[in-house]
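One example copied in:
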Amino acid sequence: MIINDTIYSSWEISNVLNSNICEYYIYVINKFAREHDYQNITKKLNIANELYKYLELTGFLDNVREVVRNGRKYKLVGPSDYVTISKHISGISIHKDCDGYSSINGKKYNCFYKVGIYLNDLSSKQQPYIGGTYFYNEHKELTVKIKPEIGKAVIFDMREWHSGSPIPKGKTKYMMGFRLLYKRVK
């Protein structure tokens, strides 16, 4: 489902992972990340390909198989070797990741989109966006709040201004993510 009111193309896709798989990844994160507020980009876990395969099953990737940047055409080659693991007890400030490079088996490719997958849901009827992702316009004014759901993926252009919502005391938000990599088509 397309996310309206973002600067660039962004999507949210429910049920990319089921609750059992999410519980497994939370277990993995807790074994890997002993600190309470932790975010790391690592190759050690080697699970970006697993997450990519689940995303592929949704049919979503047809939306981003080819992209155009600065008048140049690029083709999707797969996920980066690296996965971002997040275990947060606080929110994440407004930032953007910007286009860059990452690798697959040591070979560099362009990365244009980031994929984040919620592993748990801290929201409630009274506070439906707790633990979610916020998007902003070019003036850093809030335009979109994404409600977290177990197994939901948020895919967005890395040039988007975004943040993680504040986390209530005593709660922990778990996410995993990776970047989609592209090669230039001549």
User: Anything to note?
Assistant: The chain has one domain: 10-184. The chain has a mean pLDDT of 92.
